[in-house]
Amino acid sequence: MRQGFRRMATIVRKEWLHIIRDPRTLALVIVFPVMMLVLLGYAVANDVEDIPLAVADLSKTDASRLLVDKLTVSGFFMVTHSAQSEDQILEMLDAGTIKAGLYIPEGFGREVTTGGTGVVQFYIDGSNPTIAQTAQLAVETVSQSTSQEILVQRLERSGAGMTIHLPVDARVRYLYNPNLRKMNFLIPGLVAVILQVQTLLLTAFAIVREREQGTLEQLIVTPVRSWELMLGKILPYILVAFINVAMTVAVGAIWFGVEIAGSIALLAALSLIFLLGSLGLGVLISNVSRTQMQAMYMASFIMMPSFLLAGLLYPRENMPWVAYYAGYLLPVTYFLEIVRGIILKGAGFFTLWNWIWPMAVFSVVVFFASVFMFRKRL
Asked: What is the pTM of this model?
């Protein structure tokens, strides 16, 4: 029995030495659970607050300002843009810069002050059912509260003999996803995240596997340049990823009923830009890793934030500001907006430009970083 414990202790000592002699992997293993806890604590929030709102107040009266003030004070909305017309609100909703828009016509204040009913139009981006349902409930509550306050003022001025009816009529209209189907929101997001995960996993092991197997020595003695090697490793995976794009979009349309409202050619072209960056990022991970275990953990450090901070499952608008702005460091955040914009909204190139150019810059930078980090040596 004593000899058995000694042999086991020897094995334990041997394994412990293996762990502490690889500080990079040890650090990744220790940091990963902490990162998961922080991300889940920040990202998984149930309350929807500060929904980006654009207001087109053509009335510019006390009644219209009261309605806008009550919307902002409620905490559910944050006025981020001012519009001059209904068309401007719709353009901003198409671009994804706002999630809701309030159009107050010029005669609203006159109707309210003369005892009539002022009608306002409230637009909600229905592509995210969670935000849309919260926005609708908030609008109805705020409009009723505003109506009650205006009614009290009328009663104080006119007495009890006046006709009672609600002075504010907020008419809500859902855009892009009028039935608030969650699949319409989830499927386009899954297309983006699945591509992110697959490309990282396919390429993260590309160079490190050859280094561990010793085949990298054969590449060192060849005249292949760094950029040629990087591009040569990426191109086959781009073909595989494009096949997966076509398959996932087709399954989403045929099986789940999520039809593409925009240009398929534009979706393919922008998918190519995203795939170049994602595959380049996988090769970059493979360049800086020494073992496949390190490559796996480093890929996980990118994949998990992509699930939680990019807006796949949880609205980014109700995340703390640290998590919200951290999402802008992930290319999948921009690609999610692009995919949802094309599939659900039918948005065009110029409408999506604010999401396209950061993703394109990331792809170019990551590819050249992969070339720079690679060295044709062991």
From this structure: 0.75
